[in-house]
Amino acid sequence: MSGIRTGIGYDIHPLETGRRLVLGGEVIPFSMGLDGWSDADVLVHAIIDSLLGAAAMGDIGQHFPAGKPEYKDISSLILLKEIISKVSAKGFTIVNIDATVIAEKPVLKDYIMRMRENLSRTMGIDVEQVSVKASTANRVAEIGNGEAIAAIAVSTVEGES
Question: Which of 36, 65, 89, 152 qualifies as a FRET site for 42, CA 20 to 30 Å off?
């Protein structure tokens, strides 16, 4: 089947002290980081799931199961690069990535461009094909209370499967 395909990805991780905060491959100065097996980069994880969804290739947990020693504290950009190879091998190219990080704190506006650059470089696409936005949860639930950060992403790919 050829043509344009779209996938959606979502990820959420709790914040905890003693970890560094990494979003879009960028280390963000903050008093807490995201808890997870890898670097817990929710933005990259959401993008990975959206790409896998567009290519009908499962989800991030199927490709990189938590608990495997080789993925402990690994940079999610390394995982993204591997997924790009798999999606490309299946005959797809990325048209566009649109993602939103949902966090009450820290304020992310000063890091958005660097996130876009990290992501575009890792995926081998132009920075203009990568949109990253930041939003809050307006003090609602875990994200709004500063207990977690989430991200949602939509990927558009084209090609033949």
Answer: 89
